[in-house]
Amino acid sequence: MNLKPRELKSLKITVVFLYLLFVACFEDRRKEYEPYNGVQKWVEGIMRKDYYWYKEMPDAKGLNFFTEPIAFFQSLLSQNDGKQKNGTHYYYSVLEDLSETDTRSIQQTDYSYGFEFMVYRMGGSQYGALILYVVPDSPAGKIGLKRGEWIFEIDGKPLSETNYATLLGGEATKFEMGVWYGNGFVPIGEYTIEAARKIDDNPIHYYNVYRPANDNSKRIGYLVYNHFTAGINDEDNTYDDDLRKISHEFKDKDVNEFILDLRYNNGGLLTSAELLCAILAPESVLGKSIGYVEFNDKHNPQTQDLSLDANILKGGVNLNLSTLYVLVSESSASASEMVINSLSPYMKVVLIGMQTEGKNVGSTTYKNDEFNWELRPIICKIYNSEDKSDYENGFIPDYTADESLDTNINSFLDFGNPDELLLNTALRLINGTYKEGEDYATSRSLTGKPVPVHCSLDRKATNGVIIR
């Protein structure tokens, strides 16, 4: 076919146009979509590689990468991640938008008034907040709030489901304090508290040594340890160093029995848990493995040994104990449970309190500075030296004692008071005056008795033992 010059030119233009159109159709335009699905792509990539249950994730071809990030993230999660609570499944793995929240780092330098509390429904529409503990040198500490006191009004308004979260932190306000006598609050005064601020919540909340009057050979160490945190920030080790220092105090006083209070400790760093184990374990365990963490089968090596080598103590001292009494509650979780599980093969561990959470997994943190998101997935499972990790439903106490019962909250005593419910149980077990069959936990009736409904400690819970 012979084409005229004009026709040939027209054909060339058409071919070039079609070629450019074809190329444009297949041009890599992924960069244009990044503002809309960049977070999702980042999350899916990490989860596919490091998530402990990655094999249970849906196939990538069936995912909608333009779904809102949190919903997209939750569509990836296994039902083995987390558990049912109050009829709802809650996951341990977490994704957070850092631009919308003042996200807490590993450290417990927290924006708050400086106290932890449990909200109770007292019957009908009446609510009260029972103070669990107060952080020294905090707004709450400055005005003299104490463990065992009640708050039943905030800024002149009765405490309720809609305003109790104000107690977590806010502007300067007024608290109406009182005592509960079984059928109502009796006011004891109004306190003005300054605005919430950053506080330094040292996990070593209280410690002491006791000598039973009926047995001078026993010297009982007691430590209230509220979270497994190395220091005031991720680069600091002040709290771990404080733990090492008090280990010497216990050693110098010839402590040979020990009560570890983890009732409000819902977890933290693996390294801090290892340090505590090294202090409390029998001396013969030093240098040995206390367990391991197991990653998914993409990780090489798949396991990481947990051993109590000399470097962990770093100036601390081992107490060479043979028995450990641990005070626990529903809030005791993660690294707290790891300590119990890790030491059990080597010493007698006696649990006093209530059934623990059952968090036998570990997590780590991934940050995306470009999009300002933080991902904390479950990446491993925690085992002891006997290959046991069967506490996903929590540890059941050897001796049951529930300080949250209405029969006990009227006498909610200070830490260290020998008559305080959980401590007293441990002391009597040690000195031989405990009567078998005693049980300080009974079922609640629905006849107006106080029922715990919210706990401020829940916001501090780590989603697993933190693996750095």
Average pLDDT works out at: 89
Determine the N-to-C terminus distance: 74 Å
Total strand segments = 25
State which percent range the strand residues make up: 25-35%
| Form type | globular
| CATH fold node name of the domain at 202-361 and 380-441 | 2-enoyl-CoA Hydratase, Chain A, domain 1
CATH architecture annotation of the domain at 202-361 and 380-441: Alpha-Beta Complex
**Whole-number radius of gyration?**
28 Å
CATH superfamily of the domain at 202-361 and 380-441, by name, is 2-enoyl-CoA Hydratase, Chain A, domain 1
The helix content is 10-25%
Describe this structure in words.
With 468 residues, the protein is an alpha+beta fold. Among the domains are: 109-198, PDZ domain (Pdz3 Domain); 202-361 and 380-441, 2-enoyl-CoA Hydratase, Chain A, domain 1, CATH 3.90.226. The protein has ten helices and 25 strands. The chain has helices spanning 5-25, 30-50, 69-74, 139-142, 238-252, 270-280, 310-313, 335-343, 406-409, 421-431, and strands spanning 83-85, 88-90, 94-97, 109-112, 115-123, 126-134, 150-154, 157-158, 173-180, 185-193, 197-200, 204-210, 220-225, 257-261, 289-294, 303-307, 323-328, 348-353, 361-363, 366-368, 373-376, 378-384, 399-400, 451-455, 465-466. α5 packs parallel to α6 and α6 (270-280) packs parallel to α8. The longest helix is centred in the N-terminal third of the chain and has 21 residues, at 5-25. It is globular. The termini are far apart. The model is unreliable at 25-30, 103-109 and 443-447 (pLDDT under 50).
